[in-house]
Automatic annotation (TrEMBL):
Enzyme class: lyase
Entry keyword Hydrolase: no
EC number(s) stated in the UniProt entry for this protein: 4.2.99.20
InterPro entries, per the entry: AB_hydrolase_1, AB_hydrolase_fold, AB_hydrolase_sf
Pfam families tied to this protein: Abhydrolase_6
Keywords linked to the UniProt accession: Lyase
One GO cellular component term noted in the UniProt record for this chain: membrane
Domain AB hydrolase-1: 47-282
Organism domain of life: Bacteria
Protein name: 2-succinyl-6-hydroxy-2, 4-cyclohexadiene-1-carboxylate synthase
Species the sequence originates in: Nocardia macrotermitis
Molecular functions per Gene Ontology: 2-succinyl-6-hydroxy-2,4-cyclohexadiene-1-carboxylate synthase activity
Amino acid sequence: MATVESVVAVPEWFAGAIAELPEHREVEVDGCVIHLRCWGRAGTPGVVLVHGGSAHSGWWDHIAPLLATTRRVVALDLSGHGDSGVRSRYPSEVWVEEVLAAAAAGGIAGRPYIVGHSMGGRVTAEVGVRHPDAVAGLVIIDSPFQEPSAEAIAGALGRRSRTYPTEDEICGRFRTVPEQAVLLPYVARHVARESVRDTGTEWVWKFDPEMVPKRLENGLIPPLGSLRGVRAPVLYIRCEHGLVARDRALEIARLFEPAATVVELAEAGHHPMMDQPLPLVATLRTALALWDVR
């Protein structure tokens, strides 16, 4: 497995994308401050990028600038993640409202496209259900749409949050969850550095360590409801080496009516921004361009 410390030449496209520093904004949603990163010209049509569980908006730092050549791009930290505030509970409907608030506060004109990865894909689907007339299209990336088992939840509840004495040590511990066979080390290094915080005495990860218990209802994460109310077009991106089998991707597509379009991202693990970023960008650009002319 590639590690954060691996030495690989940084390609020109990545260096150029990272050099396009985002504009940082904040918006308050239900008493919690939500942090945003924004690219492209404000006041134009655009897209909101929604990260996965325990991740943050910085996972899109090398993706967003490549989408922002023709549109406003806003990536948010869902509450409990990144540089956003924490809550006493994390019901999915609150994350839905954060996504739409990010679109407005981030300067997107009109109905946004929403792109969500993994857990963020589930949030994206719920945005389409709860606010069917507020979105122009949904892209869901390798989201299994299955709640973790009781055993998996018990395991998560049993894990203790760790702290580290130095930035180098904590960044050296950076891993994707689930781990995958290929990580581009220059991407992993950047994301790792954006994933940690100095408390003054130690280094910690930028997510609420109580996330799992704060999401539970009656000991389980509430199941996803019906997706039949989504009116916007939906693209489902299945990663070839990700979490979702081909048959399951087709089942997920049929949860929507009309069914979502399914595209397979070849050679990609569950976190395609980490191993296949340019094919991911090409897929997103194509889908959004086609939807632009509907």
